[in-house]
Design goal:
The chain has 253 residues and is of the alpha/beta class. It has one domain: Alpha/Beta hydrolase fold, catalytic domain (Rossmann fold). It has eleven helices and seven strands. The chain has a seven-stranded mixed β-sheet, sandwiched between helices. Strand 2, helix 1 and strand 3 form a beta-alpha-beta unit. The chain is globular and about 45 Å long. 48% of the residues are buried. The protein binds D-malate. D-malate (MLT) binds next to loops.
Length: 253
């Protein structure tokens, strides 16, 4: 039985609940540039996933379904019946797991620099190897190599490195193992019946644009917004364009 945890979260604004779920190995602060742009239009809820930021750390594998359950528990605690989920990268994998387990709780969805596909066998092996290294030696080598892959904006590289350096090794390893085991959700996209915004940075070196185009084709109510001059972190690299796309999503709810 997986240990239950209460997630740390921050809240801003009033209106339709919008949960912004960060990617790996980051925390809720990646969404800060969007807060002043969106808080006048919605109730923003920014959790730290289990193992990240100020949320409790547990050992073991963080299944995407387990992380989705944590979000559901958080919503229950807030008495929120339905919400829009905005998931960045791994947060998108969590959002897709939530959509599968709790479709009745979903008002709308945004997948930011994310994908429905599972890992290739090589990627899976690489993740498990990294998880072992992080467990033995900590997050230093990840913090050395990952920031340049996340962004095309030189001024964001150091702040992202500092964020990764703060990550807890058990949280990092748990999420790596959970991502390695995640299910391919591609065939399930046709079952998602809420408005679904896909946001992709045109220069994302981690998730190819083709993955986003494929999701757009398969999602019954999906549409893609490509952000030029952004990599894997469009909410930090081009917050105005991301906020604009999220307004359009809120208009459809
Ligand atoms: C993320 O940004 O959450 C990760 O890069 C996702 C992944 O490694 O698949």
């Amino acid at each position: 039985m997986d240990e239950k945890v209460s997630l740390y979260f921050e809240e801003h604004g009033h209106g339709t609940p919008v949960v912004l779920i960060h990617g790996f190995p980051l925390d809720h602060t990646i969404w800060n540039p969007l807060v002043p742009l969106l808080e006048g239009k919605a109730r923003l809820i920014l959790p730290d996933l289990r193992g990240y930021g100020k949320s409790p750390v547990t050992r073991g594998t963080y299944d995407m379904g387990l992380l989705a359950d944590d979000i559901k528990e958080m919503l229950d605690g807030l008495n929120i019946r339905q919400a829009v989920l905005v998931g960045h990268s791994m947060g998108g994998y969590v959002s897709l797991a939530f959509a599968r387990c709790y479709p009745e709780r979903l008002l709308g969805l945004a997948l930011v620099a994310s994908q429905a596909a599972a890992d290739t066998p090589e990627r899976r092996q690489g993740r498990l190897q990294t998880a072992g290294e992080v467990e033995r030696r900590g997050v230093k080598s990840l913090a050395k190599t990952m920031p340049e892959k996340l962004t095309t904006h030189p001024d964001l590289v150091e702040p992202l490195r500092q964020l990764i350096l703060q990550a807890n090794p058990a949280g990092v390893a748990g999420a790596l193992k959970g991502m390695a085991d995640r299910e391919d959700m591609t065939r399930r996209l046709s079952e998602i019946n809420v408005p679904t915004l896909i946001i992709a940075g045109a220069q994302d070196s981690l998730i190819p644009l083709e993955k986003s185009r494929e999701m757009e084709r398969l999602l019954p109510r999906g549409w893609l917004v490509e952000i030029p001059n952004a990599g894997h972190m469009p909410m930090m690299e081009a917050p105005e364009m991301v906020a604009e796309a999220l307004f359009r999503l809120l208009e459809k709810i």
